[in-house]
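Good morning C.,

I know you're traveling, so I'll keep this short. The sequence:
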Amino acid sequence: MEPRGCGFLLLSLHILRAVTALEEKIVISKRGDNATLSCIYPGKEFSLNNLRVYWQIDDDQEQCSVVHALISGQDNESEQCIHFKNRTQLLWDRLGEGDFSLLLLNVSQSDERKYKCVVLQTNEYTKVVHQAKVVLSLAASYSQPILSGPVRNSNSNGEEVTFSCSSDNGYPEPNVYWINRTDNSHLLPSELNITPHDDGTYSVLSTLKVKATSDMQIECFIENKRLQENISANYTQEKRNNGSNTESHKDLEKSGRGAQAAGIISIVILIALLAVLICWLWKHRSSKLVSYTDVQPNEDNRKLNSPV
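The tokens, ready to paste straight into the viewer:
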């Protein structure tokens, strides 16, 4: 039979663990951005010489768990994991005010983990003064969706038609919705394919099959719940009448021929004007030459008849 003191000790440890359970803060960051992991103990000033700050991965199965360490006011990189080398910074101007938050640079998919901050103060003895847990979640925005639909004529009502909606380079996996805007009803997709890429992002392709109507207004939504982003693309069916297409084609041909004839006429008129101008200039120059030759002999005769 176990001693009563031992049972009481185990119960006390269990209660202490429950009381000191830490609330996890969630930080959402986009791939490639810098993320701030919050660890703040307000209302008290600290001397850096008496401080030890440890940031570590909150997973006992990790072979290396040290993300960043500060000992007696100096960064200690001796046990820091290689994955975090030159990628972590404490906010030095705020440490004395109780802000032990960590800046993690250029976050990637492999940084999506649970982190723990432990702050110790060393005076006569070492004691834990603050702890915090942070969950880092990564996200990436999906590209503007591309929605393609059928091209049909006006007498195809009731036929089954297919729409496709695609988007790329997002994270995590998205939700896809189809809506018929004529009555705002939700439509079930016929197929949904989500493809992972080597960089951790996803591409999505969804197809929808519905009965054709003359006023179809279909909209596709790509939802990134983590980023609270919802982007969409829409399709509005326009009636395509073969007869009207033929008439419009004929009208285009007629207008094209008219424009061509007008261009030819303009060129002919321009050439005629140039010819008239050249003739006028030639005649004007010839008249000047004639008047000059008439004047020159008269001047010569005057010189001969004048007394010396």
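Safe travels,
E.
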